[in-house]
Amino acid sequence: MLTVAVTGDVGAGKSHLVNIWASLGASVIDADAAAKAQWSRPEVLNSAVRRWGNGVLRDGAADFREIARCAFSDEDEYRFMNSLIHPGTRADISRAAASLRGLVVLEIPLLFESGGFGWADCIVYVSAPHDQRVRRNAVRGWDEEEIARRERFLSSRDEKMGKSDMVFVNDGDINRWEAKAHEWGLKLTAMASVHELSVCCASREDAQGLSSKLVEKRLAACVNISAVESCYRWKGELWNEPEWLMSCKTTGRALRAAMEFIRANHPYELPAITATELSRSDIRTLEWIVDCCEG
To answer: Which CATH number fits domain 195-294: 3.30.70.120, 1.10.760.10, 3.40.50.280, 3.40.50.2300?
Structure first.
């Protein structure tokens, strides 16, 4: 599993990027939808009414236009709104992500402002020139003044970009933007399926020979070889012997071919091959593994 948090400028094209990744098989969690759902909780809505009055209600439900007017009036009101909805939003997102596998994409416009993003393996910041963002936000009914009003409480763009693992710039060329989104969607999907494959050999020479071939054939990015003591049952007898453990880093796409190669070339009658899908790994390491096996 690989968890990618997508954030960025208002109107930069985050949703377009995420939708393309969803079309390639990614599971998507929309933080805006999760945040909006918080207003259906009585304790949240009641707190807002006590602070801002009954004007934030329409037919007994949250009036989001009026809530936005109150919340973005000054920094204290903005922080009050965040204190109401951010804790529940974070909890709901964490629960939803925990049940998923593969590439999980979290679209979180206020990732840095909401506090706490340690569970994300990778942060992608989407940026765009100011004039293009103004044009895109016009469909929401937001003019340049409204965008500035909403962004004045946010962390600086430079600070957020500096904290991100990747920065994607949407310069307005739709074909180039979609091609880049597709390219990275495929790469991130492969990075989400990185495995560690393990098998033991009787000698260091056997382990080194198999390892070199696996890396040479791009079936593994690297193989770590270490001396181990093994205890196992084979053909009804108990064995305790020294062996050499091969730990191979590979991708889901190359995994089957790597197993087949080991079976065909291993001296053992039954090499005990196991594989574990990796999670919470360094994003640069995952990219390197994918490039070595599939580049």
So the answer is: 3.30.70.120
CA 196 – CA 199 distance, rounded (Å): 10
Interatomic CA distance for residues 194 and 2, integer angstroms: 9
Tokens at 46, concatenated: 């009641």
DSSP 235-263: TTEEEEEEEEEEEEEE-HHHHHHHHHHHH
Cα separation, 293 vs 221, whole angstroms: 6
Q: What is the spatial distance between Cα 154 and Cα 75, in angstroms, rounded to a whole number?
A: 10
178-217 tens-digit pLDDT: 999 999 999 999 999 999 999 999 999 999 999 999 999 9
pLDDT value of residue 113: 76
Domain 2-191 sits in which CATH superfamily? P-loop containing nucleotide triphosphate hydrolases (3.40.50.300)
pTM of this structure: 0.82
CA–CA distances in Å: residue 165 to residues 5, 99, 220, 247: 10, 24, 25, 27
